[in-house]
């Protein structure tokens, strides 16, 4: 069983309206990166959901409406989405077999796509579409759960007495040294418009000759330097936490696509700084004494902007034990997590914290997966 999503700026049915471009570098605000959620496998698309006998709509007792098709699909993956959300999600069974390629196939592959990430670029070019995505995928295979992440979504394991992160977010701040080192080795990527050095604040002309804190690619901490004229250029990475931006544009540092993305009013590409390789975490499910309420929560960054791992775990532990007879409890839990970020459930988030981001959530029960794998 696999589940996952991709966030991107177009849907299979055709391009969305043009994304809001970043503002000039004097006041950079990144465009939004809508997400496209889908599983790696045979999960259905939204359009064909009504025709599938194994997909039944799940009613929300609170609002009396049908949840998305993926809310009860296969009774394994349970998802919920915020309103007007461009994300989509899917899950399905995978059949994996070994396939040996011959010399001709290998040569054809190397000739058409010397680098694996070029496959996406060529497909986008052929279809006349533009965009990029982040990705978070979970695959259950032979008693192990593989979680791959390239972006700023997150997956956690929630058990009765444990909360375990299964992924790490990749942002300009968390990958600062890798990005700065790339700019150090290939300074032409900045086209003389940016400085690779990071400063706690945006420098001004009055700072020339003054001592300020800075960080470079070889530094974990901060040091002092005298401000030079070149330091007044806009930083390669600027901002802290969720406000950190790459070239004043992107809030993520790993993903797929974005081959045509450039800084506004320049020919500076962002693609060289975006790493497509995901981080993979392996959870040995067979080694866990799984309980009925043990779940994996996968969610896009809008949820984690408002709720911590521990807060999500508390909500899971408070909801599931009291709803064991409800066959749709995992779907309803995903819905409740969405509501908790939008001010619809009092007391669940810190005062004044509300998320206006697109949010999508999977709640994956592991108990049945452990039982299934132990029999093989």
Would you mind describing this structure in some detail?
Strands 1, 5, 6, 7, 16 and 17 form a six-stranded antiparallel beta sheet that branches. Strands 4-19-18-8-9 form a five-stranded antiparallel beta sheet. The radius of gyration is 22 Å and the shape is globular. It has a domain of 77 residues. The protein is built from seven helices and 19 strands. With 376 residues, the chain is α+β, with helices and mostly antiparallel strands. This is Protein phosphatase 1m-like. It holds the Pfam family PP2C. One of its GO terms (cellular component) is mitochondrion. GO terms for molecular function: [pyruvate dehydrogenase (acetyl-transferring)]-phosphatase activity.
Structural class: alpha+beta
Tell me the number of helical segments per DSSP (H or I, 4 or more residues long).
7
Uncertain segments of ≥5 residues (pLDDT<50)? 7-77, 109-113
**Spatial extent as radius of gyration:** 22 Å
Largest sheet: 6 strands, antiparallel
β content, as a range? 15-25%
- From the spread of the alpha carbons, the general shape counts as globular
Helix content: 10-25%
Order of helices and strands: EEEEEHHEEEEHEEEEEEEEEHHHEH
Distance from N terminus to C terminus (CA atoms, Å) equals 15 Å
Number of β-strand runs: 19
Mean pLDDT, as a whole number? 74
Ordered list of secondary-structure elements with their pairings:
Elements: E1 2-8, E2 10-11, E3 14-15, E4 78-81, E5 90-92, H1 103-112, H2 118-127, E6 132-141, E7 144-150, E8 154-159, E9 162-165, H3 176-185, E10 194-195, E11 211-214, E12 223-226, E13 234-235, E14 237-238, E15 245-246, E16 256-257, E17 279-284, E18 295-299, H4 301-304, H5 309-319, H6 329-340, E19 360-365, H7 367-374
């Amino acid at each position: 069983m696999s589940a996952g999503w991709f966030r991107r700026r177009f849907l299979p049915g055709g391009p969305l309206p043009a994304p809001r471009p970043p503002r000039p570098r004097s006041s950079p605000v990144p465009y939004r990166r809508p997400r496209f959620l889908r599983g790696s496998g045979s999960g259905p698309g939204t359009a064909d959901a009504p025709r599938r006998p194994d997909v039944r709509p799940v009613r929300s007792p609170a609002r009396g409406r049908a949840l998305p098709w993926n809310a009860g699909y296969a009774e394994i993956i349970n998802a919920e989405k915020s309103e007007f959300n461009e994300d989509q999600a899917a899950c399905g069974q995978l059949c994996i077999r070994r396939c040996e390629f011959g010399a001709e196939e290998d040569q054809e592959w190397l000739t058409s796509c010397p680098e694996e990430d070029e496959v996406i670029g060529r497909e986008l070019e052929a279809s006349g579409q533009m965009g990029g995505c982040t990705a978070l995928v979970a695959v259950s295979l032979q008693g192990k759960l593989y979680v791959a992440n390239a972006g700023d979504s997150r997956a956690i394991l929630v058990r009765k007495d444990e909360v375990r992160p299964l992924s790490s977010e990749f942002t300009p701040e968390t990958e600062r040294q890798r990005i700065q080192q790339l700019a150090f080795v290939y300074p032409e990527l900045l086209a003389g418009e940016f400085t690779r050095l990071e400063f706690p604040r945006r420098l001004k002309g009055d700072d020339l000759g003054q001592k300020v804190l800075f960080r470079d690619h070889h530094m974990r901490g901060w040091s002092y330097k005298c401000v030079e004229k070149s330091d007044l250029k806009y930083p390669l990475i600027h901002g802290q936490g969720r406000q950190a931006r790459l070239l004043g544009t992107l809030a993520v540092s790993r993903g797929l696509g974005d081959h045509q993305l450039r800084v506004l009013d320049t020919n500076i590409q962002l693609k060289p700084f975006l790493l497509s390789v995901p981080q993979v975490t392996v959870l040995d499910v067979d080694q866990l004494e799984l309980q009925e309420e043990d779940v994996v929560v996968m969610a896009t960054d809008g949820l984690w902007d408002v709720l911590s791992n521990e807060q999500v775990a508390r909500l899971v532990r408070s909801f599931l034990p009291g709803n064991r007879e409800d066959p749709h409890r995992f779907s309803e839990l995903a819905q409740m997590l969405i509501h908790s970020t939008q001010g619809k459930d009092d007391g669940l988030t810190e005062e004044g914290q509300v998320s206006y981001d697109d949010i999508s959530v999977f709640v994956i029960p592991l108990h049945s997966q452990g039982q299934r794998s132990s029999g093989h």
